[in-house]
Amino acid sequence: MLPSAGMSNGYLRKDSSERKFGLVHRDKLRKGGRSSKDLRHGHGAKVPGQGNPRINGCTEYDAAYFQSYSHVGIHEEMIKDRVRTETYRSAIFQYQSAIEGKVVVDVGCGTGILSIFCALAGAKRVYAVDASEIAIQANEVVKANNLSDKIIVLLGRVEDVDIDEEVDVIISEWMGYMLLYESMLSSVITARDRWLKPGGLILPSHATLYMAPITHSDRYNESIEFWRNVYGIDMSAMVPLAKQCAFEEPSVETIIGENVLTWPFVVKHVDCYTVTIVELETITAKYKFVSMMQAPLHGFAFWFDVEFAGPANMPNDNHSPSSLGEGSTSLLGDSTTVSSDACANGSNQRRKRAKSMETLVLSTAPEDEPTHWQQTLLYFYEPVDVKQDQVIEGSLTLSQSKENPRFLNIHLEYTSGGRSFVKESVMR
């Protein structure tokens, strides 16, 4: 943070070369783009870009990213996320009439579980695409379930693979931390523009990124205040380094509704049927909050939800196999929110996004059932005391890093109680 009023919330920049690939963020990584090999007849292929980091536009960062997804632990964590996996399964069967007898592409298929759900829902053919060598295991999973006649596993990037027909459905679990980390949505957009028929189905169809100011004294005490008295020894000299290590970069962790000081703000609403790659390169929003309580402001939390809705006039089926039921109407998730457009015009009008009773929602809000995405927290080095009804306002810019487009640059300006600050960080 760079204070403008003599405060000490300084953000210490770090040489980005210290993390060449940046593929270490809590040891959890999501999926990426693809070069092409049909694995139905069996032999593995090198991950695109290895040995030559610029083949087919695949950079050395992409190659390292794809390689990270060859580890089974990442896929185990995602599959064991019951909220995630059961919601996707529910959505597939909710739209069974749009999938049965149709052609599907699964962008970033991983182990192939979503492709198999689609095949079980009656898809005529599923193209399961992934640039990681996990596609080799996915092909074996497909064989073991006697679905090789329906599922074609392609090892390669969506940008490079060849599919010689239009598709009716695109399904993908593309969401990263803070929704946009890893930039995988670009691959979904590419698949849409290359293959999706007019009026085709995209699952999920919409996504919304939220932010809200938070108070979290326990976390601050555990990471910072701890050093002031360690077994009776004054180790306060460690505090500046502790703050840098704990709060320099965004932190992925779980908070609860009581940590949130206000109604959330909509940073970005994404319509997967219309969004463009260029639109995602830089996102800017102005926000204004009114604190609901007196508490120390420790930073901001970010979370998202995604909706599974078809294009206009597409029917869905009302027989989901999941026990999750319909989308959450949570206080902090997809209920009342502040429109980013409205706030940009100086209005703090709240609105409620209308949903049909059948729309499934996967929410990562603080008071909803936890997921492996948790929430992303951007902490200040020093808390700011706020009173009830005190205004917290400023602007947020999220941009793809020039160093590596899968990284997310964060520029946050905020003002409260007459003091203004800037916090800059990179999600690597």
TrEMBL record:
Q: Does the keyword Methyltransferase apply?
A: yes
Q: Where is the Protein arginine N-methyltransferase domain?
A: 206-309, 358-415
What biological-process GO terms show up in the record?
chromatin remodeling; methylation; regulation of DNA-templated transcription
UniProt-annotated stretches for the region Disordered: 23-52, 317-355
Report the Pfam families cross-referenced here.
Answer: PrmA, PRMT_C
MF term (GO), any? protein-arginine N-methyltransferase activity
Protein role? Arginine methyltransferase that can both catalyze the formation of omega-N monomethylarginine (MMA) and asymmetrical dimethylarginine (aDMA).
This one is known as: Protein arginine N-methyltransferase domain-containing protein
